[in-house]
Inverse folding.
């Protein structure tokens, strides 16, 4: 094989490995905060961090959309996202999402983590949708970290989002 190219199989494995490492970092971050303070304080801190980071990511997506002349609509979220979807390989079935796959392994030994894994998905995806579109929100109906066989979501128009209110904005509460 040419040293300048890698097989798709290897590229998928490398992206998934990177995602596994990130998933474990999130677990460790949450565990340390939960152990040091309390589960509720850890939940609040995690939600705030996830919200802040999702806003940053969505703002970057907005700039990319403007550069490309793309509409800020839900249908363009995945295309303009910074997620390397190469690692989201459907041949892995229920483990298509590498974060979900790794978090489910953590949940086996640490069942308390389930709500934090779900929080990551909900805060991140909802906030990105709300900031990026400025007129739509997001709902996860199925999530592998909650025991479902896949993740399924919908985007929907939201008057609250149109009026500047975001679901997970800590300043809205």
């Amino acid at each position: 094989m040419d040293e300048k190219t890698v097989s798709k199989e290897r590229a998928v494995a490398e992206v998934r490995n990177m995602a596994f490492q990130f998933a474990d970092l999130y677990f460790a971050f949450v565990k340390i905060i939960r152990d040091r303070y309390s589960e509720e304080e850890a939940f609040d801190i995690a939600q705030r961090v996830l919200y802040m980071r999702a806003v940053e990511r969505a703002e970057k997506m907005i700039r990319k959309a403007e550069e490309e002349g793309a509409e800020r609509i839900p249908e363009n979220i995945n295309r303009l996202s910074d997620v390397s979807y190469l690692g989201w390989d459907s041949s892995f079935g229920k483990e298509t999402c590498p974060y979900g796959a790794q978090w489910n392994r953590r949940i086996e030994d640490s069942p308390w983590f389930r709500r934090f894994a779900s929080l990551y998905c909900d805060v991140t995806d909802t906030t990105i949708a709300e900031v990026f579109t400025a007129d739509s929100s997001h709902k996860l109906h199925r999530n592998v970290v909650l025991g479902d066989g896949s993740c399924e979501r919908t985007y929907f128009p939201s008057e609250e989002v149109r009026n500047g209110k975001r679901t997970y904005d800590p300043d809205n509460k």
Q: What stands out?
A: DSSP finds six helices and two strands in the chain. The beta strands are 136-142, 152-157. Residues 136 and 157 are 4 Å apart (CA to CA). The mean pLDDT is 94.
